[in-house]
Amino acid sequence: MDETLLSKAAVYPESEGFDGPPVKGYDFSQSSVDYDALFQSYNTMGFQATNFGAAVSMINDMLAAKSSPFEGYRMPDVRQESGCTIFLGFTSNMISSGVRENIKFIVKENLVDVLVTTCGAIEEDIMKCLAPHQIGRFDYDGKTLRSKGLNRIGNLIVPSKNYELFEAWLMPILNFMHDEQKEKGEIWSPSKMIRLMGERINNEDSVLYWAWKNKIPIFCPAIIDGAVGDVMYFHSYNREGLIMDLTQDIRLINRTAVGAQKTGMIILGGGVIKHHIANANLMRNGTDFSVYINTAQPF
């Protein structure tokens, strides 16, 4: 037998048919960019771009479902605005960075119904209304920065003065909450406090402001795990006894999921925000749409 044929048979085994779209990217030579077609092209671009394209398609499906009217059982005190209740979860670094402005747009335009985040996002959204974060470098020495009263979040720099401004802003709100508790029996939850913060900041650059304006609840089960907790700690030495009831919030987020006609969840990151949203949707035996964006390995 011809040795060449033997080698070719080893190198080129007979191909079976495969039913899949051809790999192709977007053609930028057109006179203008068709953004719908651009995002659609990610589906056939390959590698992680295909996963991104699938995420875009699923979010479009969420928004299409959201555009239909709500037809289910009405539950008191639960946001039931449309045919699909969309939960958006994000870690605090999304607010530390310029992604904050993207999230603000989403909330301002009422594109989601529930927000879940961690403590840093709550405080830093307010802090950025008081003074800016600044661009630095990842490799700045932490000890040197600390000696200068500067704090590093990745390659972002936040002066300690900004935290002092936040403390001065939040203290009167905690006093008001304590007064309401003592005089009217008001028991606060994290989402109630965050709503009050959004109202009081009265700044259109703020995510919390637009969530308050559009009646979109923000849940933060780890509310004391950051500067908010620091200020509450300091406050407790002047006015002891402020109660923060997490049970109200777990009831509200779970009832929001249970009372929804359909649900979708968009998770930016992992940890508390992912589990809190997934667990709420477990109460209705799962969600209809889900998109996860993170740096974890899929295996």
Would you kindly provide a brief summary of this structure?
By secondary structure, this protein is α/β, with parallel strands linked by helices. It contains 13 helices and eight strands. A hairpin with a 2-residue loop joins strand 4 (150-153) and strand 5.
Average predicted local confidence, pLDDT: 95
How are strands sequenced across the largest beta sheet?
Answer: 6-2-1-7-8
How far apart the termini lie comes to: 45 Å
Residue share in β-strands: 5-15%
Poorly predicted regions are none
Rg over C-alpha atoms, rounded to the nearest angstrom: 24 Å
What is the element layout, followed by pairings?
Blueprint: H1 3-11, H2 35-41, H3 47-66, E1 85-90, H4 93-96, H5 99-108, E2 114-116, H6 119-130, E3 134-135, H7 142-147, E4 150-153, E5 156-159, H8 160-184, H9 190-201, H10 207-213, E6 218-219, H11 227-238, H12 246-258, E7 263-268, H13 272-282, E8 289-293
Parallel strand pairs: 1-2, 1-7, 2-6, 7-8
Antiparallel strand pairs: 3-5, 4-5
Helix pairs in contact: 5-10, 6-8, 8-11, 9-10, 12-13
Outline the structure in words.
This protein is of the alpha/beta class and 299 residues long. Helices cover 49% and strands 11% of the residues. It has 13 helices and eight strands. The chain has helices at residues 3-11, 35-41, 47-66, 93-96, 99-108, 119-130, 142-147, 160-184, 190-201, 207-213, 227-238, 246-258, 272-282, and strands spanning 85-90, 114-116, 134-135, 150-153, 156-159, 218-219, 263-268, 289-293. A five-stranded parallel sheet has the order 6-2-1-7-8, with helices on both faces. Helix 5 (99-108) runs parallel beside helix 10, helix 9 (190-201) packs across helix 10 and helix 12 (246-258) packs across helix 13. The two termini are 45 Å apart. The mean pLDDT is 95.
